[in-house]
Amino acid sequence: MKREHYLSPFLRNPPARLDLATLPTPVERAPWLDAPGAAVYVKRDDQTSRLYGGGKVRKLEWLLANPPYDDRRPIVSVGGIGSHHLVALALHLQAQGRELHAWVFDQVPTAHTLDDLALLLSTGAKLGRYRRGRRCRSRGWRTAPGPGRSRPGCTCRPAGPPGSVRSASSRPGSSSPSR
């Protein structure tokens, strides 16, 4: 007797998926990376979406279309001040008329991380500052998995209410990074 594969029920009735990505993305030759006897090609996932490309869009298509993240309540997530996860989430939620409450923790304030923070702030996301080391609890909001997490949750404790974040370079005693 042949047993059914454990994924068969899932494949017969897959979960909902939002149409956020423009797929497939192109594969292009990158001759500057060639080595003797080897041609190098690059998959252009930066073109996954006009809003914000990359593999994060693929994850958000499934995440935002299914419970508990598919309703109109704000979504809470966590990441560094230069988090591409938070930027992608904020931009795609903004396009849906939804809101992100992001708890952010400090990173080295490079030009890149501060640009990402500025982009995150431009979406209207509400930000709170995290201290590392303790679990947080969000009441009435949905906590989206952060980067590298497979389940909802976070490992940081809020150090201030949403909106209390300032750029690392604007804090007293810190020097502004050179661009």
TrEMBL record:
Residues 138-179 are annotated as: Disordered. One of its GO terms (molecular function) is D-cysteine desulfhydrase activity. This is 1-aminocyclopropane-1-carboxylate deaminase. It comes from Nannocystis pusilla. The keyword Oxidoreductase does not apply. Residues 162-179 have a biased composition (Low complexity). Belongs to the ACC deaminase/D-cysteine desulfhydrase family. The keyword Ubl conjugation does not apply. Keywords: Pyridoxal phosphate. Its cofactor is pyridoxal 5'-phosphate.
